From TrEMBL:
It holds the Pfam family Alpha-amylase. It comes from Arthrobacter gengyunqii. Signal peptide: none annotated. The keyword Hydrolase applies. This is Glycoside hydrolase family 13 protein. It comes from the Bacteria.
Length: 562
């Protein structure tokens, strides 16, 4: 790593200006925390809110603008916290509302915003509403908050449709009185009926509840699945396209046009606050329809997962960047960029594996490697880490929001060899032998080189940490100027110094496998996707993801110049 620029210290006035800026989100660096795996304050093996509060100095030293907090609500963890029992409370295993208030106050004091995950498509089956629905008769107001239907066949023994759950098996579960309820995901996640005014109003109350406590924005889970057309007879799955192939808003439960009426109401609530609350949609939709979720009259921003699905290929990267920046300009939003999160194989691992056809053709996900327990194909750890740094530095130079997943700043790899008895992800249990699940990217972080849980807490960890985690611990990297952690800190510091307006221009590169673009203020980013060193343009080197070779940019490396 090469860095020649001197650091800048942010003044209190600068920090306050950023906190009050209504457009702070447009080019923010956002750090995703999976709370159960970040830091454990009480030694029970589960990360918690006081643990996060204790690590805020680390987040400040990293240089992020905001934290995206994955679900922290009461939950049975049928889907990692995305099965919510109570939308206006904290899981007792993670803390209390007082702990939440202390955490957000400490984040704000450090100049860091908070984006809370919200899960509006479904509740858990333990939610008070669903328990009331099960205890109520067919056709009751309690059942109308969800999607209940009579079954098919002479005795109603067959599901109302042949639709599949995303997690495998049917999308319907039968109740004791013979009716069926719909669940796009796990059976413990019954879908809400967003045609019901009571449901819509209750979520407006929830948005205000957390906004009043200081939450700065919301990440909206499965934003494209809320509204549904349940007109009978229900369509056969043979007549339905894939989740993100639909381009007309007519799929019965994915990306229907009516969902934007919901988000227009949400926007009116967000605009009640100063600065307005922000939101970003998780919407796996056809590219032509993503801009609607990012509308200023709606959520304002939508996740773009295209780089996350890209191979190590300069042509793919150029096409994706060009297309998404054009999309953002049309919508008036800014784009989002991400390589890792709680649902996918860490990108240091993905980029260290040979390119092969994945189980899901829409994503280069390393699934075959995971299914082998990390044995086949052979993972090139060093190459993966080198490429991960290069693309992360490229991402941080792009206009728009950059989303980082906890541990990527340490260069962490995916944990593949988790024994079956320790796995937690429902996708593993529902699709044994087909899907290994997402536990490998959710293993608790290593803070120290030794200890029962590498400093995660005073006890063990809810998912087993491999012995090699110690080499990647914060303690091992803290004072090493060549470490991955030092690289991320410097990159984020420079990014804040260099960012101005959202300008961008491609520059013709000398080598066909080199991507070169410029940003305002003369900031240039050059990435070499090839295997041989490439000539650099004239300019002062600010940061390089790997050391230069005789003044040239080596393969699998990015440099910033000015």
């Amino acid at each position: 790593m090469t860095s020649t620029a001197s650091p800048q210290v942010q003044s209190a006035a600068d920090m306050e200006a950023r906190m009050q800026d209504p457009h702070w989100w447009r080019q923010a660096a956002v750090y995703q925390i999976y709370p159960r795996s970040f830091a454990d304050s009480n030694g029970d093996g589960i990360g918690d809110l006081p643990g996060i509060t204790s690590r805020i100095p680390y987040l400040k030293s990293l240089g992020v603008d905001a934290v995206w907090l994955s679900p922290f609500y009461p939950s049975a963890l049928a889907d990692g916290g995305y099965d919510v029992d109570d939308y206006r409370n904290v899981d007792p295993k993670l803390g209390t509302l007082a702990d939440f208030d202390e955490m957000i106050a400490a984040l704000h004091a450090a100049g860091i915003k908070l984006i809370a995950d919200i899960v509006p498509n479904h509740t858990s089956n333990r939610h008070a509403w669903f328990q009331e629905a099960l205890a109520s008769p067919k056709g009751s107001a309690a059942r109308n908050r969800y999607i209940f239907r009579d079954g098919l066949g002479p005795n109603g023994d067959e599901p109302p449709s042949d639709w599949d759950s995303v997690f495998g098996g049917p999308a319907w579960e039968r109740t004791e009185d013979g009716q069926w309820y719909m669940h796009i995901f796990a059976k413990e996640q019954p879908d809400l009926n967003w045609d019901n005014r009571e449901v819509r109003d209750d979520f407006l109350t929830t948005l205000r509840f957390w906004s009043d406590r200081g939450v700065d924005g919301f990440r909206v889970d499965v934003a494209h699945a809320l509204t549904k057309d349940m007109t009978e007879p229900l369509a056969s799955k043979a007549d339905l396209g894939a989740e993100n192939d639909n381009n007309n808003g007519k799929h019965p439960f994915w990306d229907r046009d009516e969902v934007h009426e919901v988000f227009a109401e949400w926007r009116r609530v967000f605009n009640e606050y100063t600065p307005p609350r922000t939101a970003v949609a998780e919407a796996w939709v056809h590219a032509d329809r993503r801009a609607r979720y990012a509308s200023p009259e709606g959520l304002g921003q939508a996740f773009n997962f295209d780089l996350l699905k890209a191979d190590w290929n300069h042509g793919q990267f150029r096409d994706i960047i060009t297309k998404n920046l054009a999309e953002a300009k049309l919508s008036g939003a800014s784009s989002t960029w991400v390589f890792s999160n709680h649902d996918v194989v860490r990108h240091a691992t993905r980029y260290g594996l040979p390119v092969s056809a994945p189980a899901d053709p829409d994503r280069q996900d390393g699934s075959a490697w995971l299914m082998s327990g990390g044995k086949e194909p052979v993972l090139d750890h060093t190459l993966g880490e080198r490429r991960a740094r290069a693309v992360s530095q490229l991402m941080l130079a792009l206009p728009g929001s950059a989303y980082l997943y906890q541990g990527e700043e340490l260069g962490l790899h995916e944990v593949a060899d988790i024994a079956d008895e320790h796995r937690q992800d429902p996708t593993f249990f529902r699709n044994k032998g087909v899907d290994i699940g997402r536990d490998g990217c959710r293993v608790p972080l290593p803070w120290t080189m030794e200890g029962i849980s590498f400093g995660f807490g005073s006890g063990g960890a809810h998912l087993p940490q491999p012995e090699w985690f110690g080499r990647y611990a914060v303690e091992a990297q803290e004072d090493d100027p060549a470490s991955s952690l030092s690289f991320y800190r410097r990159a984020l510091e420079l990014r804040r110094e260099l960012q101005t307006e959202e300008g961008f221009e491609w520059i013709a590169a000398a080598s066909p496998e080199v991507l070169h673009f410029t940003r305002p203020n003369g900031w240039q980013c050059v990435t070499n996707f090839g295997s041989t060193p490439a000539n650099l343009p004239a300019g002062k080197v600010l940061l390089s993801s790997s050391p230069l070779q005789d003044g040239m940019l080596p393969g699998a490396a990015t440099v910033w110049l000015i």
